[in-house]
Write a structure and sequence with these properties.
Largest sheet: 2 strands, antiparallel
Shape: globular
Number of strands: 2
Order of helices and strands: HHHHHHEE
Strand content: 5-15%
Radius of gyration: 16 Å
Number of helices: 6
Distance between the termini: 39 Å
Length: 137
């Protein structure tokens, strides 16, 4: 693990879990800025934008699908972010990905606490290929 490389045999917090993010070429993902701003609007006290934008941008994340290159461990080790905040952030990401990938309908997700930070999935018409479009309100 990352901690062993840095000289520590054990992770400082057991709450950090390995999360695997899958992206698909036929899905349009929101930009990191759009997602963080909408999350900030939904939960202003959490300061999502100021907490996560700089670390994620420095690690090469520009849109939500880029998060497959960043682990919760790396956010903790290299940017000293709070493990609870990191895992809460990833819960929001996974909820959004479920909606974008069609595992959950947008209305189900909005009913269950608006965890997708204002992202609404619009199903394409029959004449359009199977792309998923999103609109941020």
């Amino acid at each position: 693990m990352l901690y062993e490389v840095l000289g520590s045999p054990d992770p400082p917090s057991s709450i950090l879990a390995d999360i695997e993010i899958e992206s698909y070429p036929h899905v349009t993902y929101p930009s990191l800025d759009d997602f963080l701003l909408n999350l900030e609007t939904a939960e202003p006290a959490r300061r999502w934008y100021s907490t996560f934008r700089r670390p994620l941008m420095s690690m090469g994340v520009r849109s939500i699908d880029d998060l497959e290159i960043v682990s919760p461990d790396s956010l903790f080790v290299f940017h000293q972010l709070c493990p609870l905040m990191i895992m809460d952030f990833y819960v929001h990401i996974l909820d959004l990905l479920d909606v974008l990938h069609g595992n959950v309908s947008a209305t189900e997700s909005q009913d269950s606490s608006e965890s997708t930070a204002g992202v609404v999935v619009v199903e394409p018409k029959a004449s359009v290929e199977k792309d998923v479009f999103f609109a941020i309100y």
